[in-house]
Specification:
The chain is of the alpha+beta class and 293 residues long. It contains nine helices and five strands; from the N terminus they run αααααααααβββββ. A five-stranded antiparallel β-sheet has the order 4-3-2-1-5, with no helix packed on it. The protein is elongated. It starts with a helix and ends with a strand. The relative contact order is 0.12.
């Protein structure tokens, strides 16, 4: 892999690794995050087509007020909506989407997939552009969508208000992403006066720092909510940091209210184990709720 490609992909992969580490207490099934990243990469194609059509329809109006519509409506709304759809259409009903933190991880993963391909296209052979985007555009994608992901995670566990949470999250992502793009497109002056690339750079760095701090805080809150929902114990993947489950193995089944009940594994299928409970019942239990005895 050439240095330019490493520079294009490396920042997104590093941020993805960091988010996976944040979720290490209750990790996701192997390959699930990778598939979401690849779906995020794929959203670049429809995003490009949609944005070209929108610009053709709107014409010169997209340039008004420092390209306000270009930043918020064409770029931010289109891209963040497609990333959101990856999570809602592919992940929403998956049994392993069972934590608020999962909303942050998966939505940010879709965004970083998008950012990877976008970075490759923008960077080309320009090292300077690659370095600049590594500290601005790539973390912007992750933080804007990650904050939306927090709201998606809250929506998953707020049935009566799920739509409000999702729409609120989309609004936050579009607001952050659009403000960043507006600063870049208007060269820092938002259509009021003569632009300055240096001013724009300063503004986007501040945006990225503030949003990174916000995402860190939301991630900590999401993990606290998950501890309250699922219990403070960790739930390692089967065979990773815990004995590999086998038929007859004594385990502890952890309920959603934090209760812990002795059981024995009979067999496994997909993401579930067939367990015999201490009262004689035989039930299928999601792997996330099975811990070593």
């Amino acid at each position: 892999m050439g240095p330019i490609l490493v520079l294009s992909l490396g920042p997104a992969l590093l941020l993805l690794w960091m988010l996976v580490r944040w979720d290490a207490k209750r990790p996701e099934p192997p390959g699930s995050v990778t598939r979401v990243v690849l779906l995020g990469v794929a959203t670049c194609i429809p995003a490009g087509v949609i944005e070209l059509v929108e610009k053709a329809v709107l014409g010169d109006v997209v340039d008004v007020q420092g390209k306000f519509l270009d930043a918020f409506f064409i770029a931010a709304l289109t891209e963040e909506t497609l990333k959101l759809l990856v999570v809602l259409l592919y992940l929403w009903k998956k049994p392993h989407f069972d934590e608020v933190m999962d909303g942050i991880l998966y939505t940010a993963a879709a965004s970083l997939g998008f950012a990877m391909l976008e970075n490759v296209l923008y960077v080309g052979n320009n090292v300077g552009t690659g370095v600049l985007r590594a500290f601005t555009a790539v973390p912007l994608h992750a933080t804007a969508s990650g904050m939306m992901g927090y709201c998606v995670g809250r929506a998953k566990f707020s049935p009566g208000a799920s739509t409000l949470w999702v729409l609120g999250g989309l609004g936050v992502a579009v607001g952050v992403h659009g403000t960043y793009d507006w600063a870049v497109m208007s060269e820092g002056v938002f259509g009021f006066g003569e632009g300055s690339p240096l001013l724009a750079l300063l503004e986007v760095v501040v945006i990225v720092i503030v949003c990174s701090a916000a995402l860190y805080g939301l991630s900590r809150h999401a993990l606290a909510l998950d501890d309250a929902l699922l219990g403070p114990h960790s739930r390692p993947l089967p065979g990773v940091g815990a004995p590999r489950p086998y038929a007859g193995m004594p385990v502890t089944v952890v309920s959603t209210d934090g209760g812990r009940y002795p059981a024995r594994i009979l067999s496994g299928r997909g993401h579930h184990y067939l367990c015999t409970m201490s009262d004689g019942r035989t039930v299928w239990i999601p792997w996330q709720n099975v811990a070593p005895a």
